[in-house]
Amino acid sequence: MNSAQGSVSVIGGGFVGLTLAAHLLEKENQIVTLVEKNSAVVDSMKNGRYLVWEPGLAQILDDAQSDGRLSISTNLNGLESKTYFVCIGTPKPTSSNSTNNVMVEALTEIFKTVPKQSTVFLRSTVAIGTTNTLKKLATDLGRSDISLYFAPERTAEGVALAELKVLPQMLGAAEGDSLANGEKELSTLGFNVVTSTTAEVAELAKLACNTWRDVIFAYSNELALMGEVRGVSALEAISLANYNYTRANIPLPGPVGGPCLSKDAYIFLEANEGKVRDSVIRSGRLINDSIAPMLITAIENAFIDKATPILCIAGLAFKGKPKTNDVRDSLGIEVLDKLKSLHSTWKLKIWDENISQEELSAPMPRCEDKEDFQKVDALVIANNAEFFSDSAGVKKLQALPSSSVIFDLWGVTKNLEGISAEINIFGDGNWVKYLGK
Ligand SMILES: NC(=O)c1ccc[n+]([C@@H]2O[C@H](COP(=O)([O-])OP(=O)(O)OC[C@H]3O[C@@H](n4cnc5c(N)ncnc54)[C@H](O)[C@@H]3O)[C@@H](O)[C@H]2O)c1
Questions:
Q1: pTM, two decimal places
Q2: Which of 4, 77, 112, 213 has the fewest CB neighbours in a 10 Å radius?
Q3: What is the pLDDT at residue 5?
Q4: What is the mean pLDDT of residues 401-415?
């Protein structure tokens, strides 16, 4: 079924497209067409299996599919919508695959296909200048009738549907397009719009939101990495620095991954053209990227005398709270993949109550019962999921033998009692004995 006149089309059925579609469909009369180019993903969605887990999402999409308000298609042909939200994935840029190229390729098809006088909102994260580059593309394709806007997504996974209801929706218009018209259209759809004078300002603001967080966490991570090298507790130092001293508000250290924070620094830097010489944003990202290699060195040194150690990686989603099943750019997956390639004799296992085999690129043996945990030589706690500290989780941690080593990246074991394994919390300075000379 194609969408009716006045309905909305969402292009890209990943996290952003699905949550946006569900948000729009929460309005009773809204009709949405979801366009997803991956036919296997479309088949799954038609059978009620969606790529992402988000509280309430599947129910809204299932209901809308059954009452005919949500249709799902692999292509744009025949759509009658006049409003389009582009939610396609933008990659970490490389010399051969820039964010701009990905958007130009997708938008060429969209501009050629959508009806006259359509409005296109870009929701994907893009490099500064992309909206106006794409406006020029539309004009070059003879589609200056299309109005183009940058209206980025800023939600956090696990709370996206709640945040879509309250977060201000940033909006910038492409050169020559009416900001007021775009604002009116988004307001009609229920968004609380905040406008910028140009599309570039909104593009920079979106990148600022994530790169700012990345840099702030990198600062704490640098303290923690230094603490590990020197055998000094950065966690205690941070607590001491913050104590009754309002000018220091230093966050705790920890892995910074996921599909956005791991790449937005690089998308930000795409627009640099070598003119800003030093970059705190680049350095921050490199510091955050350096936690995994240091952890791998520590694990390798912990196993130096063992030919076939059993290592369990626990917490594979890129974050534990709010709960998500998104494993993209997670520390757990990065460490698992690296150790698989480096140490073919090691027995690698996983422990994760939130991740099914479907979410992993290859099936992995799991630590499930007490007997499995009793045989583990080392356990990496890679996120701060709730299941580590519920009573079943604590029993599993207590089953680890006293000879085993825990590398706890989030301090989740800090206040747990009855664990006989050796605990090494990231930032406490205990990794030093495993880092070699
Ligand atoms: N939490 C988040 O994931 C988040 C938050 C804010 C912003 N963003 C940004 O939003 C964008 C989308 O993120 P995502 O996580 O949903 O990406 P994703 O890669 O998980 O999903 C994108 C989907 O779009 C589909 N697709 C790609 N090109 C298409 C095309 N031409 N036509 C139809 N479908 C197409 C892909 O097959 C994929 O299923 C990215 O730019 C991302 O950086 C993501």
A1: 0.93
A2: 77
A3: 38
A4: 96
